[in-house]
Each structure stands twice: as structure tokens, then as C-alpha cells.
Amino acid sequence: MTRLERTADGLGERVDQFLARTVSNLTRSGAQRLLEEGAVLCGGEKVKKNRKTVPGEVYTVDLPDPEPIEAIPQDIPLDVVYEDADVIVVNKPVGMVVHPAAGHPDGTLVNALLYHCGGSLSGINGKLRPGIVHRIDRDTSGLIIAAKNDASHLALAAQLEDHSLYREYHAIAVGGFREDGGTVDAPIARHPVDRKKMAIDWVNGKNAVTHWEVLERYSGYTYLKCRLETGRTHQIRVHLAFLGHPLLGDVVYGAKKPVPGLTGQCLHARKLSFVHPKTGKRLTVECPLPDWFEAARERLKKQG
After folding, report:
1. How many Cβ atoms sit within 10 Å of the Cβ of residue 149?
2. Could you confirm whether 180 is annotated as catalytic?
3. Is 11 helix (H, G, I), strand (E, B) or coil?
4. pLDDT above 90 as % of the chain
5. Distance CA 266, CA 280 (A)
6. Cα distance between residue 86 and residue 51, in whole Å
7. Do residues 219 and 303 touch, judged by C-beta distance below 8 A?
């Protein structure tokens, strides 16, 4: 069992909603189950699932040990943009999780890669993340590279570390930018209250740098090119929200209501450039914007 504490920050929020919002990988139904089982305490007493929180209350939660997850090969179609004996680059669709985890035991990119590559993937990141050098969010589309052997994995990881692995994203942000480009240099850490989010943290955050450039301007929106210098979780999403320009369709860091026609945020990993671990030559790979992204751009263009 894993024991943790959470301090309520809002008045009148149901405790099951509060727990689902603040405990990583815990759904509301999962929180209700823990409450029914007496695994949630406040002041040493079991908490009823219809209880409403009061700011400052401290809840103690006993989480069951996670059930072991095994990544198994699955015949899932992949949009392979580049592949050789050492690396594979895939254009990941919106909605696909990169590797198995609680709540997503299968149907992931890793499951698809295991089937496609026949087990020929780097083992450095363990059985649940074979070959995975870097990640992109479930609701972000675009290019992701995986290593087929340990030597390639180490070489690519070193390029991530020294920022020589070039990663370019295209995005649609809410609002207009006065400048044509700029850099966000603001450290990122886990959100202090909502553990499913990230946040700017000047004290405990890890170094995070994003370079951005305006490509097109629309009425109330801006089409951007973003280049990652570092690779923190949700980095572009957090940095643009920090500027006051959250991504169109980002219900975590922007408007809470989904945008009609979008299933995720308007963020696409369009270009990768890296030194090939075997040949030593720089390899650049690109993929077009997905249809749903282009449709969003066309709608905004027509609006003015």
C-alpha cells in the first residue's frame, strides 16, 4: 500500500472529485471505490464519498499497490515515416498513449512498436518503455523516435541532453502576439495542488526553454512554430499558457470546454533532426499537419 496526504484547497468540492483531480492516475470512480473501502481518512475517521471538502482539511489515502503491467505486441497500424536497423520514426496520431501505464495497459505506441519491430527495440527504459527515447502527450500528434538497440538509444539520449536533437512543433495559440518571436525560459515542476498538471515553479522547477516564432496571424489566434531546447512534461503547453496564450483545444491549461472538431490540443510535432547513431550523418524527418489541424487553420483563416 502507498500512503499519501492531500490538503483540500477548495470549499464545497466533493471529496471524490478532489482526489481524482489531485492524485495521479486516479479516476473519479477509482476514488469512489477507495472511499467505499474506507481507504480515505480525515482526522483519523473514514470519509463518506458524498462529503464536501473544506480548505485546510488533510486527507490520508491508502492507495493499493499497482498491478503489474506487461507490454505485449499488438497489431496496431503505424504511420512509419523513417526506419532502418537502428531507429524508427513514427507519426503518432492524437489519442494514442506512448507507453502502457495505469488506465492505459494496452493499445499504446509501445504495443504497436513491439509488434512492428518483432522485439527489436532498446531495453534501456525497461519492459514498459522499450525503445522510447522521448515522449509526446496523448493528445499531441506527430513525430516520435524510438531506438532499436541500446547503442542507438544512448546516442540519441545524449543528443537530447546536449540539445542537438532538434524538435520542432507547430501550434495554434489563443490570442495575438505583439512580437514575431521569442523565448520562454521558465522552470517547470509538478503542480503543487493538481498533481496531474505541470506548472511554472521558480524554486523547485527544472530548467525549461521553448523558442517560438509566429507563422500566421488570425483573428484572436496565432499559428506558431515552437522549438524545444529542453523536454519537460507538457512544456510547450505550460509555457504558452504562462504567456497568456494557451493552446487551442487544451482543456487542461486553457479553456475547459472542448473545441468542436478537435479531439486534443492544436500541437503537432512536425520536424525532427538528429545525428544518426550509426552513420554519424544528420538526418532530418518531417511530416505534414494532420487533417484536423489543417481544418482548424482553414476555419480560423475564414474568420479573418
Report:
1. 19
2. no
3. coil
4. 67
5. 34
6. 55
7. yes
Burial class (CB in 10 A: 0-12, 13-18, 19+), 187: middle
Which grid coordinates belong to 152? 542507438
Nearest in space to 6 (alpha carbons), one of 58, 51, 56: 58
Query: What Cα–Cα distance (Å) separates residue 128 from each residue in 74, 103, 104, 243?
Result: 14, 14, 12, 35
Q: What is the three-class DSSP state of 101?
A: strand
**Is the CB of residue 249 less than 8 Å from the CB of residue 258?**
yes
Q: pTM surpassing 0.70?
A: yes
Give residue-wise pLDDT tens across range 229-277. Answer: 999 999 999 999 999 999 999 999 999 888 888 888 999 999 999 999 9
Strand partners, 63: 2
Q: Which CATH architecture has domain 67-162?
A: 2-Layer Sandwich (3.30)
CATH class of 2-63: alpha beta
Question: Does residue 11 surpass a pLDDT of 70?
Answer: yes
> Would you call 292 exposed, middle or buried from its count of C-beta atoms within 10 A (0-12, 13-18, 19+)?
middle
Q: How far is 204 from 193, CA to CA, in rounded Å?
A: 14
Q: Does domain 163-304 have CATH number 3.40.50.620?
A: no
Secondary structure (3-state) at 292: helix
Mean pLDDT confidence for 47-64? 87
Q: State residue 91's pLDDT score.
A: 98
Catalytic residue among 16, 86, 137, 250: 137
d(CA 234, CA 231): 8
- 225: helix, strand or coil: strand
Give Cβ neighbours of residue 19 (< 8 Å, ≥ 6 apart).
Answer: 6, 26, 31, 34, 40, 59, 61
Q: 83 with 91: CB under 8 angstroms?
A: no
Domains 67-162 and 163-304 share a fold: yes
